[in-house]
Amino acid sequence: MPMMGVQRKGYLFFGCLVYFRRLFVFKIIKPSCMAKKNKPGKKSGTPKKTVAKKSVTKKSTTKSAKAVTKSSARGLGIASLPSGTKHKIYIESAAFFPANSSDGYVDHFQDGRRSAVANRGLLTAIVLPVGAVIKSMTIHYTNSTRETPIAFFLRKHQDRHSPSGEIEMSFINLPPGVLPPDNYLSVTDTTFPDGGVIQDKFLHYLEVSGTGDFGAEGRRTVRGVSMVYVY
Q1: pTM for this one?
Q2: How many whole angstroms separate alpha carbon 184 and alpha carbon 186?
């Protein structure tokens, strides 16, 4: 009889061990397997990643489009478009000199400069960066005569002769007039070839013709020039 009790206890212990082992396998191992199988179900987060990639693509497309626009502008010779900064420069009459030194010049301080020999022109260089867009050119002058001389805004190529049609930038009439208190006159031009763009390899200058002292008929002087450009 005592042996039978020990035997029963052994079976009971063995049965409990098997039970707990199955419980351990079911509770621990099986859920972990199910979790592994369910991992592909985390696709709910993928749309967000896809949207992010699309936004990056749009940005890169926009940048490339801007790059193409800039390169196209350079190819047309308009490296700087009117989206730049507006500038204004002034060139005083002291920068104007006669085309021929024998013609000489005479300064009249604030009234400007004229050629010593009547009815001769005075010239000055126009210096602007390549790619700048000229918006306006204003000639400041006096003219108490009855005549209307012309100011020539011209250019010449650095490597070759510039033919007619290429050399001309603008012709500006300088009519006589009276404007109190000092009869200082100004004329503005806003029309230029190539959209006003300063092309590469060109040298620009301004010639104000017909300056001088004409005695009783009056006097014509150049006081300077001002320009507005975008760059």
Answers
A1: 0.65
A2: 7
